[in-house]
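Give me structure tokens for this 243-residue protein.
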Amino acid sequence: MAEEQQDPRDARDAGDGAQDAFESWGRSVRAEEADAWSHLVDTARRTVLDGLVVGTSGNVSVRVGDTVLVTPSGVPYDRLTPDDVTGVDLDGRQVLGTLRPTSELPMHLAVYRSTDAHAVVHTHAVHATAVSTLVPELPAIHYMSGALGGAVRVAPYATYGTAELAENMLHALADRSACLLQNHGTMAYGASLSQAYDRTAQLEWMCHLWLTARSVPGLTPNLLTEEQVAEAGERLRGYGQRA
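Here you go.
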């Protein structure tokens, strides 16, 4: 979250007993977790490079078995190393690492408990966040809405990091793979980090598109019907190369 800018490792490296506040939890890192952490860090850095995140104002997670690897709180992504693996179980108990997990952990865990997600990406993308302040649902401006399960809902505002926000998000995600968080940002999940990221990027693009179209004086954007969006969603399920 952007609200947590201090890198906890600065305190950890300062000495004078600071290490006691960052004691190590749990077990050693398994090979598949180390590999997943590398992909998670790459994805987190990509959110910054592509302008979806400023500073640490977002978070990424990936599930490996019953362990959820997640970006730590307040650490710039370009400073993350293989030694910074941060993981919790599905009840939120820390099992890997010495850094505190993201403050948005309740949202990530709620997605994993309620869906078949293997990865989650949360951002404060500017166009998506702008749309979240204007409407209760992103209008069906493009057929790619179908790739997210239909029109993208906006979850009512609640303070970041709270159970209330996680509950609001789950309602907005019903039968969807992405949603907007009012006055906050985006939440998307997928079967992989790549899919969760792609859905996030598509959502931001559609929000940008809608804001651009509605800004033309004297004209109203044409919107797709629910049937058109659903038909596109069916076709998109078979899109791309076959394995």
